[in-house]
Design a protein that fits this description.
The chain is built from nine helices and six strands. The longest helix has 26 residues. A hairpin with a 2-residue loop joins strand 1 and strand 2. The chain has a six-stranded mixed β-sheet with strand order 1-2-3-4-6-5. The chain is α+β, with helices and mostly antiparallel strands. The protein folds into two domains: 62 residues; 167 residues, no CATH class. Keywords: Membrane, Transmembrane, Transmembrane helix.
């Protein structure tokens, strides 16, 4: 689990609210300035990565983000749909700083993603989530062939989704570069949307377990497991 959520609840909330308020101020400044000079809206390209980092603790504590592993979260997850996303820059800071960029880093991310899918399967098996739930997302870490083996169907994302990716391009570049061990720009134009259902995910449970076992032999042991299926502890 993200080490931040092991802290006292009052400490989590103080940090979460402080970061939230601190991130809202520059947003208001940009909006006010842009009302007279529209070019100021371009600053949102820089602001969005800052906001993603700052909003993470608040979104997690309020349930907007639901984590299925330290680096796999669902945004506004419901019984109808789980929109999966890679961890934010806040999660990278708290979870991934001990891992060497490159193959080790990429394999660790892959393992966290697979463990997150396995945790979703367990929630479905326990009837906490219905089998009919639609699970969607994109990933730079899994190729289309691997996704299809796990029961996902791939398709071209909508224009809105591509615009959203473009607005997050700064985060995407440094996150992708860490996984590659060198500066590398992901090809947003080749991004595919992946989707499956809870039932199909269960049917491919053994394949996911097998992939996890293979990854265990490729990465050094590290005591950062995610075993709880609940939200961060409210202590």
């Amino acid at each position: 689990m993200n080490k931040f959520y092991r802290q006292k609840l009052i400490f989590q909330w103080i940090i979460a609210i402080t970061l939230l308020l601190g991130a809202l101020l520059p947003m208001f400044i940009i909006i006010i300035k842009a009302s007279n000079q529209p070019l100021y809206y371009l600053f949102f390209m820089i602001y969005i990565p800052v906001a993603q980092f700052a909003f993470t603790p608040f979104c997690t504590l309020t349930g907007i983000y639901r984590y299925y592993s330290p680096m796999l979260l669902g945004y506004n997850a419901t019984d109808k749909q789980i929109d999966l996303h890679n961890g934010t820059s806040f999660d990278y800071l708290m979870v991934m700083t001990h891992h060497k960029p490159g193959i080790e880093f990429r394999n660790r991310i892959l393992k966290y993603h697979l463990e997150g899918l396995l945790n979703i399967i367990q929630l479905i098996e326990k009837k906490n989530i219905p089998e009919t739930v639609n699970i969607v997302g994109t990933s730079y870490f899994f190729n289309n062939r691997t996704l299809e083996k796990m029961g996902f169907e791939t398709e071209n994302p909508s224009l809105f989704y591509r615009i959203n990716l473009f607005m997050n391009v700064i985060d995407l570049i440094w996150m992708y570069s860490l996984s590659q061990g060198k500066l590398k720009i992901p090809n947003i134009g080749n991004v595919r949307k992946a989707s499956t259902t809870g039932k199909k995910l269960i049917e491919n449970k053994n394949k996911i377990k097998l992939l996890i076992e293979k990854l265990k032999h490729k990465i050094p042991p590290y005591n950062q497991s995610f075993v709880s299926l609940e939200q961060p502890p409210m202590n």
